[in-house]
Amino acid sequence: MGDMFRSEQMALCQLFIQPEAAYASIAELGERGCVQFRDLNEQVSSFQRKYVTEVRRCDDMERRLRYVEAEMKKDEIDLPLLSAEDEPAAPNPREAVDLEAQLEKTENELREMAANGASLKANFTHMEELKCVLENTAGFFSDQEIINLDSNRMVDPNDPAQQNGGQRGQLAFVAGVIKLERFFSFERMLWRISRGNIFLRRCDIEGLCEDEETGRPVLKTVFVAFFQGEQLKQRVKKVCAGYHASVYPCPSAHAERADMIRDVNVRLEDLKMVLNQSADHRCRVLTSAAKHLPRWSIMVRKMKAIYHILNYFNPDVTGKCLIGEGWVPAQDLTTVQEALARGSKQSESSIPAFMNVIETNEQPPTYTRTNKFTNGFQNLVDSYGMASYREVNPALYACITFPFLFAVMFGDLGHGIILVLFAAFLIIKEKKLAAIREEIFNIFFGGRYIIFLMGLFSIYTGFIYNDVFSKSMNIFGSGWNMNYTEAEMTDPTSKYITLRPNDTFFKTYPLGMDPIWQLADNKIIFLNTFKMKLSIIFGVLHMVFGVSMSVVNFVHYRKYASIFLEFLPQVLFLLLLFGYMVFMMFFKWLVYNDTVEGPLSPACAPSILILFINMILQGSQDTPEPCKEFMFDGQKSIQMVFVVIAIICIPWMLLGKPLYIMIQRRGSPPALPKPQESAAGGADHGHGEDEPMGEIFIHQAIHTIEYVLSTVSHTASYLRLWALSLAHAQLSEVLWNMVLAKGFIFDSYVGAVGVYLVFGAWSALTVGILVLIEGLSAFLHTLRLHWVEFMSKFYEGAGYAFEPFAFKTILMDEED
């Protein structure tokens, strides 16, 4: 947890690597993931860098991998999952050459098989269509001896028999296959070009046929067009070509068609055998490639990432050394040195690589080392804004305050147990569930420890509220004493009985709420006042803690004047107004009770809200005897002093810091910032040395107005703790009374079935509405309280994230 108090200290390092050892050294650094490299060639285009050829080779290998993977998806071949232990390292240059040759061989083989397969499949489709034409046109030529059909005979001009009587009976025809959806348009077009002198017959092919253009199944039909004349025949063939209709030779004689069908069947059998052998060979090649494809893909990605980083390096003047720069966490400097030494040893370089730490005025990146428990809370803070360098990290305190404020709104022991069980399942099965890549599930899985803590705190607040699915537990018994007789209890004229706090067995209940409040008619009134005051108390404490955290930033950045000029007026303004209101709540609880009479009796207890309003407006109110307006002597004078000091704090915040900067500039020349003081410094909202004084005054005026107004609005904003807690309890009670209780109104065996069905409905509504929807609502309100009300008091969030060169991150991003 000590690492989470503030971001880690960073160092800007300069790396000197021999060109022959550069690849291996960067590969070692990528495995460790602790260096964020800087691009020293920003002015050089991507096409003019030293390793652009190697990057293009990697792009070409990636293209081949994508092609092989696409072919596997076509054949529905699943890729084997590669565990983290089996993940290959980045290949050395010799292995990269072998990998490139293997990928090229696999791609060429697949492309050749695809081309041959497409040709064989087209031939097979044409043979099947020809077979359909030959078989389905048999009925069209049954009267061939009478009408003398011929699709290929030409008229002999020297034969007078053909010139005279034979010409009238001679018909030509064209047979083929066309898509059924195009046939009707095709028929109209033939009718128009022939002016009605074409006789068209069709016969639909049973089943679906594969479309050659799209590969989708479509309906097709066989057609035969009868006509006279060679000129009309050419027109018909042109129309067939325009409609993508396949025209096939079809003899009119029955014997010729039978011989042709036998020949087509033989060729179809041969094509089937060749297609099956080709499919088997393709499957063997793809299956063999599938075993290695995940490893190949990882190796190529690592290679490309290494050469991409090497393009960030600059060669020295002699060209015998590569120089690079990068940010490294101070704790990982030894790790980087070991990686460089290991890379030089692997490449057998004569000169070892070395590293220098250089001074800089640039703001370093922000890096907070987390584990699987703290990572979820850190992500919540980073979503608001990345912390400035070495700024106090709110995630450390959010590990406790976040689930606690959530539980104040979600306080129900039963619902808390549901959250704990769900989170415990995610935690116990986290190794198996981590492989799931579904987006919504990953949100819940990433916050499993947050949900677990929220459930535990909800169980605790459920005990405090004594609330289990809207019912109370009678663990310690009731502390109230019943001083009524049986006759008074059974009196029909008495609608209510009143229990006085003075008639109790013990003044303070051991833990949480007395269960008798579950039966009280003024239960909601009592819980309202209790939870409302509780939310204000937690809110003021939370905001005071946030303002106090700014002191830690001021001390770290050596801005001690800001403690007096900013922190002190801010905390005084907050404590003297709203801190005093919290004091009045506790004072009222302690002093006013049912054991005394007179001005300290419960009837004379003043309203805290009225007292606070009169304190600000300097008003007063009339009180009946023997009650008093104020709770103690001298309260009016103390309140007046508090208001005056709070008003003085406003110009103190407004003018203090700008005047201090003005005096400081006049007294001394501007100094250069230190390397680690380049950040603004938390809530200091630091001003540059060359910023005009007018802008500084305006800037400080904005922040003063914002703080004064937000102190009031943020305190009121914590009332959402009371509002959501009340709404959650009432919804839970409504579900119990309006749903589950209805199952107990039946007698006999029908009641058992009714309870079973009603319980199922009640469970679904409880989980869906009270746990999921209400839980999400409470989560969002808790997030807002931390982002706006708490973190705005000290957290600036003007930094940028540390993004090291790490193979693990690169591979995860590409998978997503």
TrEMBL record:
GO terms for cellular component: plasma membrane; vacuolar proton-transporting V-type ATPase, V0 domain. Keywords: Coiled coil, Hydrogen ion transport, Ion transport, Membrane, Transmembrane, Transmembrane helix, Transport. GO terms for biological process: vacuolar acidification. It comes from the Eukaryota. The chain crosses the membrane at residues 404-428, 440-465, 536-555, 567-587, 638-655, 749-773. It is found in: Membrane. The keyword RNA-binding does not apply. Signal peptide: none annotated. GO terms for molecular function: ATPase binding; proton-transporting ATPase activity, rotational mechanism. Residues 58-123 form a coiled coil. Essential component of the vacuolar proton pump (V-ATPase), a multimeric enzyme that catalyzes the translocation of protons across the membranes. Required for assembly and activity of the V-ATPase. This is V-type proton ATPase subunit a. It comes from Drosophila guanche.
